[in-house]
């Protein structure tokens, strides 16, 4: 690709006519993002820490990407720290909370032992697994609050009931990647803020509040002031950006603690050192700009197409055969996610997808795709019966998905089910 070539034009149609409905797993780069990455690679290759013009150009691009991210979240540029992705951002919050707990115990006669962290039973593995590891090593106590089968949400009262004197972090995702259910993060932050005032008086450690917003950005409003959180995780490849991420921290190092996991050359104010990945950061900034300009239009479009998908599924299979696994009365859900089961024996989600010729989708989180036919633990914890959960399919539509795509995808599903039933017939 020569300088000035449109990277978007060079993108081949790798889908070869298939219909991709797996936008919660990942999204392709927006053409504007690919262009920004390419431009930065060609024109801002200098080391951002160098004081000559090649360095300054790269530094400038990083600064403007930081501004775009801050604007997207209603925060300040100095509250953004770039990371390799969501996994790192989530691990950094957990690491920080443990350090914060131990710092808060310094000089206290009666130590409260190890930190306690509260989270939900449906978090992404990049929260669940580091917490389980800390628990196994005896370095932290963890409470996984089950989601309510009535709402699919971790209820605020249940989360608050799990809090102990040694609690130092509550982490609750903003929207679940499998069901799309939106969690009551703003209410939780408010209640914890009030609780923290009482805890200060009792010399108990402040409870930090984190939300993993990986699935919500670009699909709905995300405003850190409304959410009232101390930390928020950003994952570029979920909103047509590159495979890097960022962490929002409310005034890192002053209002809110932030402890680095890496030590090195001082970049990102030493919170996350290492020579900055300028092209990817520039791309992330461009992806944020697209969200800033268009998120309402994206949301309205995806909601329309998703609702059409659900209506088409019911019309094609019959209402009695389709069970929607994320329709919880009173709970809001992501505009793009449809988690459903086609009822009947031998129609496990994985088998149905394997018989599809056009549709590309998943049965749940992409990082669990190796785990065989076991029903999703997320659906089970939402109270979906195992025989329904094992037939689950997660279809997640994107900015460019059309009603015609939906028609083709559902037709494909109908044929796949007919084939499976024919094969099973005695
Ligand atoms: C809710 C949620 N959090 C965090 C992540 C982790 O992102 P990454 O694998 O890019 O680090 C994902 C990605 O699947 C996710 O869906």
From TrEMBL:
The keyword Magnesium does not apply. Its EC number is 4.4.1.16. Pfam families: Aminotran_5. Its cofactor is pyridoxal 5'-phosphate. The keyword Metal-binding does not apply. Residues 19-408 form the Aminotransferase class V domain. InterPro entries: Aminotrans_V_dom, Cysteine_dSase, PyrdxlP-dep_Trfase, PyrdxlP-dep_Trfase_major, PyrdxlP-dep_Trfase_small. Its main location: cytoplasm. Keywords: Cytoplasm, Lyase, Pyridoxal phosphate, Transferase. Belongs to the class-V pyridoxal-phosphate-dependent aminotransferase family. Homodimer. This is Selenocysteine lyase. It comes from Taeniopygia guttata (Zebra finch). The lineage of its organism: Eukaryota, Metazoa, Chordata, Craniata, Vertebrata. The gene is SCLY.
């Amino acid at each position: 690709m020569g300088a000035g070539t449109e990277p978007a034009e060079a993108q081949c149609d790798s889908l070869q006519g298939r219909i991709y409905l797996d936008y919660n797993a990942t999204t392709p780069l927006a053409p504007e993002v690919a262009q920004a990455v390419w431009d930065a690679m060609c024109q801002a290759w200098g080391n951002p820490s160098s004081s000559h013009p090649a360095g300054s150009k790269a530094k400038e691009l990083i600064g403007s990407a930081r501004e775009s991210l801050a604007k997207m979240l209603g925060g300040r540029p100095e509250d953004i720290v770039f990371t390799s992705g969501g996994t790192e951002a989530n691990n950094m919050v957990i690491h920080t909370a443990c350090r914060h707990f131990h710092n808060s115990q310094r000089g206290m006669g009666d130590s409260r032992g190890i930190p306690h962290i509260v989270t939900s039973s449906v978090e992404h593995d990049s929260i669940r697994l580091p917490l389980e590891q800390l628990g196994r090593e005896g370095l932290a106590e963890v409470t996984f609050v089950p989601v309510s089968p009535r709402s699919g949400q971790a209820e605020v009262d249940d989360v608050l009931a799990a809090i102990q004197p040694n609690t130092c972090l509550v982490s609750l995702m903003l929207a679940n990647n499998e069901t799309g259910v939106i969690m009551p993060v703003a209410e939780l932050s408010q209640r914890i803020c009030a609780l923290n005032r009482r805890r200060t008086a009792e010399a108990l450690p402040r409870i930090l509040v984190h939300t993993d917003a990986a699935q919500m950005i670009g699909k709905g409003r995300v405003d850190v002031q409304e959410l009232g959180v101390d930390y928020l995780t950003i994952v570029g490849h979920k909103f047509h950006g590159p495979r890097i991420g960022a962490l929002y921290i409310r005034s890192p190092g002053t209002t809110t603690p932030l402890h680095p996991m890496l030590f090195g050359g001082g970049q990102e104010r030493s919170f996350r050192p290492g020579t900055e990945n300028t092209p990817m950061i520039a791309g992330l900034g461009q992806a944020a700009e697209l969200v800033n300009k268009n998120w309402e239009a994206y949301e309205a479009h995806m909601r329309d197409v998703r609702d059409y998908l659900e209506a088409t599924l019911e019309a094609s299979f019959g209402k009695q055969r389709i069970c929607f696994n994320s329709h919880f009365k009173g709970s809001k859900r992501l505009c793009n996610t449809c988690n459903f089961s086609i009822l009947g024996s031998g129609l496990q989600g994985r088998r149905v997808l394997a018989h599809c010729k056009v549709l590309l989708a998943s049965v749940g989180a992409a990082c669990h795709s190796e785990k065989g036919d076991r029903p999703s633990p997320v659906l089970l914890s939402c109270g979906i019966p195992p025989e329904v959960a094992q037939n689950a399919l997660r279809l997640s539509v994107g900015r460019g998905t059309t009603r015609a795509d939906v028609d083709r995808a559902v037709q494909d599903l109908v044929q796949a089910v007919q084939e499976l039933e024919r094969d099973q017939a005695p």
